[in-house]
Write a structure and sequence with these properties.
alpha+beta, Uridine Diphospho-n-acetylenolpyruvylglucosamine Reductase, domain 3, Enolase-like, domain 1, 3 domains, five-stranded antiparallel β-sheet, four-stranded antiparallel β-sheet, globular
């Protein structure tokens, strides 16, 4: 029988996980973990609920960052005026996860800790160079989202560590535009077959910084900064857009699953990168 505990502090939660490092699981929104338990994919001896840790919720803009508490729901992120103003692509990605029932329960921290390859927010967060504040039973550390997710449903989190917040850098003097494009091959509520996140900073009409991240095509979000470097200092014109889209499609080694073949994903990747780049190129 699974034991259920509900700590009142983050320290107590980390200690509960440390007490049973391979048998305890942290429970946030539960939209993923409970489903996996019902399907018999996981069978934790202890569920450590984070439900009483209300200080892990909330969204604030501070010191050049957006700080999002890990227990903030995806719907709260999607409708946040702060996120919509400063990171509209993250708001868009969170608004596309599952359906409203899922989004009202699923949390941003839980979404990252699950490390589902076919989820929407991670690609945007990787492209924004977002970081996670991670608390363990003995120390706190900062982990880039790009280093947090290490493979299919696997992360660099230790068994006793919990994500407490996500930090997103906001633009300084540069004119920033971002886009998230999701392609689903089955139903509108399905996980993405391909998800493309683009973020671009412009100065005087030319690209000052550009990131392109493709999700749902491999075990981790795919980002190749060397393929966008030639765009720096240039306008994001049609030739540049086509070069980047083609280079990414050639560089990615897509997986195959029920949502699409490797060949199909490669074609969709090129099309959706082009669309996302064209969107951020428009004033």
């Amino acid at each position: 029988m699974t034991r259920f505990v509900e700590p009142l502090t983050i320290e107590e939660a980390c200690s509960a996980l440390a007490a049973d490092p391979w048998g305890a699981k942290a429970l946030a929104g539960g939209t993923a973990l409970v489903l996996m338990m019902r399907q018999g994919l996981v069978n934790p001896k202890t569920l450590v609920s984070l439900g009483a840790l209300q200080h892990l919720r909330g969204i604030e803009a501070e010191d050049g960052f957006i700080r999002i508490g890990a227990r903030t729901t995806l719907n709260e992120v999607a409708v946040s005026p702060i996120v919509s103003a400063l990171s509209p692509s993250l708001a868009a990605a969170c608004s596309l996860v599952g359906n409203i029932r899922i989004r009202n329960l699923a949390t941003l921290g839980g979404n990252l800790a699950e490390a589902d390859y076919a989820s929407d927010p991670p690609s945007v967060l990787v492209g924004m160079d977002a970081t996670c504040i991670v608390q363990g039973s003995s120390a706190q550390r900062i982990v880039p989202v790009g280093e947090l997710i290490t493979g299919f449903y696997s992360t660099s989190l230790a068994p006793d560590e919990i994500i407490t917040a996500v930090l997103l850098p906001v633009a300084g003097d540069a004119h920033r535009r971002s886009s998230y494009k999701k392609y689903v091959s089955r139903s509108s509520e399905d996980r993405p077959c391909v998800g493309v996140a683009v973020m671009a900073d412009f100065n005087a009409g030319v690209v000052a910084h550009l990131s392109v991240v493709v999700g749902a095509v491999a075990e981790v979000p795919q980002r190749f900064d060397e393929l966008v470097t030639p765009a720096i200092g240039r306008p994001l014109d049609q030739q540049t857009v086509s070069e980047i889209a083609g280079a990414y499609a050639a560089a990615i080694d897509p997986m195959e699953d029920a949502r699409g073949s490797a060949w199909y994903r490669r074609q969709v990747t090129e099309v959706f990168i082009r669309r996302a780049l064209e969107e951020v190129a428009s004033p």
